[in-house]
Automatic annotation (TrEMBL):
<comment type="similarity">
    <text>Belongs to the TrpC family.</text>
</comment>
<keyword id="KW-0456">Lyase</keyword>
<protein>
    <recommendedName>
        <fullName>Indole-3-glycerol phosphate synthase</fullName>
        <ecNumber>4.1.1.48</ecNumber>
    </recommendedName>
</protein>
<keyword id="KW-0028">Amino-acid biosynthesis</keyword>
<comment type="pathway">
    <text>Amino-acid biosynthesis; L-tryptophan biosynthesis; L-tryptophan from chorismate: step 4/5.</text>
</comment>
<feature type="domain" description="Indole-3-glycerol phosphate synthase">
    <location>
        <begin position="5"/>
        <end position="260"/>
    </location>
</feature>
<dbReference type="GO" id="GO:0004425">
    <property type="term" value="F:indole-3-glycerol-phosphate synthase activity"/>
</dbReference>
<dbReference type="GO" id="GO:0004640">
    <property type="term" value="F:phosphoribosylanthranilate isomerase activity"/>
</dbReference>
<dbReference type="InterPro" id="IPR045186">
    <property type="entry name" value="Indole-3-glycerol_P_synth"/>
</dbReference>
<dbReference type="Pfam" id="PF00218">
    <property type="entry name" value="IGPS"/>
</dbReference>
<dbReference type="InterPro" id="IPR011060">
    <property type="entry name" value="RibuloseP-bd_barrel"/>
</dbReference>
<keyword id="KW-0822">Tryptophan biosynthesis</keyword>
<keyword id="KW-0057">Aromatic amino acid biosynthesis</keyword>
<keyword id="KW-0210">Decarboxylase</keyword>
<dbReference type="InterPro" id="IPR013785">
    <property type="entry name" value="Aldolase_TIM"/>
</dbReference>
<dbReference type="GO" id="GO:0000162">
    <property type="term" value="P:L-tryptophan biosynthetic process"/>
</dbReference>
<dbReference type="InterPro" id="IPR013798">
    <property type="entry name" value="Indole-3-glycerol_P_synth_dom"/>
</dbReference>
Length: 267
C-alpha cells in the first residue's frame, strides 16, 4: 500500500473504533434505512447517461472545491440533470464528507447511491446499508484478497452492489479472480485514472486496461474526466460508466454543469 493510502486507512480504522463504541451492529441493523429496498447501480448505468456524479467537498490533492451549493441542491441537481447514480464521499478527515451526508442524500434522491469511502472493515458495510447506500466502493489497493472477498460477500448478502476499483493489471486480475463466480449484474469494475502516488490522472490507464476486462463486466472510468469528447471516446471502447467529481464540484451549480456535460456527450 502506498503512503497516502496507508495514512488514510489508518485514520479510517481509528475513527471506526470510536463509531463502533457508540453504535453496535445491532443498533445499525435497527436503523430505518437498513431494510429498505435498494436501487441497482448496474441497471441504472446500463439504462441511462452512465454518469456517476460525485458529491465531494475537498480532496487531499485539490484541497477545498469551495462549492457554494449545499448537499441538497447538489444531489437533487444531479438527479434532475440525468445522473445514473451519485457517489457520496463519507470520509471526513480527507474528503470532508460524512455518513450524515449519505443519509441526507438518501432522503433527497431516488437514484442509486454509492458510499465513497475507504472500506476496510465489515462494520462499514453495515453502516453503508443503514445510512442509505445502494452500492459500496472496494479499492483493490487497500485490501488483500481475503479482506476483499469478505467485504464483497457481506455486501452482496446485504443487497448492496459493489464498485471494485483498480489501477493496474495486477489489481484487475485479483478482482476478476474473486468475482468469477459472482453474478455480473451485482458489481462493476472501475479503473481509477488517478495515480495515488503522484496524484496525476491519465485516461490512458482506462484505455490500456479495457482490453483485459471480461465481456460481461460493466467497465467504469474514474477520475480526471473533464471533456465530453473523452467520454465519447471511452464509450467507443466499451466503457459504460464514468465517475466524475471535481469538474462539477468546482462550479457554483454542479447540477447545471452536469446537465450541459451530458448534452455535449449526446451531441
Ligand atoms: O474528481 P474527479 O477527478 O472527477 O474524480 C472522481 C472520483 O473518481 C475520485 O474522487 C475517486 C476515485 N476513487 C476514489 C477513492 C476514494 C475517494 C475518491 C475517489
Amino acid at each position: 500500500m502506498n503512503d497516502i493510502l496507508k495514512k488514510i486507512t489508518q485514520q479510517t480504522l481509528k475513527d471506526l473504533s470510536v463509531r463502533k463504541r457508540n453504535m453496535t451492529l445491532s443498533d445499525l441493523r435497527s436503523m430505518p434505512g437498513y431494510g429498505r429496498k435498494t436501487f441497482s447501480l448496474y441497471e441504472s448505468l446500463k439504462n441511462g447517461s452512465g454518469i456517476i456524479a460525485e458529491h465531494k467537498r475537498q480532496s487531499p490533492s485539490k484541497g477545498s472545491f469551495k462549492c457554494p451549493a449545499d448537499l441538497e441542491k447538489v444531489v437533487k441537481g444531479y438527479e434532475k440533470a440525468g445522473a445514473s447514480a451519485i457517489s457520496c464521499l463519507t470520509d471526513e478527515p480527507f474528503f470532508g464528507g460524512s455518513l450524515k451526508d449519505l443519509q441526507s442524500a438518501r432522503n433527497y434522491v431516488k437514484i442509486p447511491l454509492l458510499r465513497k469511502d475507504f472500506m476496510v472493515d465489515l462494520y462499514q458495510v453495515h453502516e453503508a446499508r443503514a445510512y442509505g447506500a445502494d452500492a459500496i466502493l472496494l479499492i483493490a489497493a487497500c485490501l488483500d484478497d481475503e479482506q476483499m472477498k469478505t467485504l464483497a460477500i457481506e455486501a452482496l448478502n446485504l443487497n448492496l452492489e459493489i464498485l471494485f476499483e483498480v489501477h493496474n493489471k495486477e489489481e484487475l486480475d485479483r478482482v476478476m479472480q474473486l468475482t468469477q463466480s459472482f453474478n455480473p449484474t451485482k458489481f462493476v469494475i472501475g479503473v481509477n485514472n488517478r495515480d495515488l502516488k503522484k496524484f496525476e490522472t491519465s485516461i490512458e490507464i482506462s484505455k490500456s486496461l479495457i482490453a483485459h476486462f471480461p465481456k460481461d463486466v460493466l467497465a467504469i472510468s474514474e477520475s480526471g474526466i473533464s471533456d465530453p469528447e473523452v467520454v465519447k471516446e471511452l464509450k467507443q471502447i466499451s466503457f459504460q460508466g464514468f465517475l466524475i467529481g471535481e469538474l462539477f464540484m468546482k462550479t457554483d451549480d454542479p447540477g447545471s454543469a452536469l446537465k450541459s456535460f451530458i448534452k455535449s456527450v449526446e451531441e
